[in-house]
Amino acid sequence: MIDKELLEILACPACKSDVKLENDKIVCTSCGRKYPIRDGIPVMLIDEAEGGPGDEKK
Prior knowledge:
By secondary structure, this protein is α+β, with helices and mostly antiparallel strands. A four-stranded antiparallel sheet has the order 1-2-3-4, with no helix packed on it. Strand 2 (about 25-30) and strand 3 form a beta hairpin. It is built from one helix and four strands, in the order H-E-E-E-E. It is globular and about 30 Å long.
């Protein structure tokens, strides 16, 4: 699904922390935001993320 080398260079655009792959999402290890993967491409946009600090609506 996502290449390990790509995953190693990705960082959360919100807090710049490391990310990990969980199911079908890229998850920040610090703030907890979950970024979608569409057609095998991680969508690393803060506006597209689920969760994170102060986000009760998602």
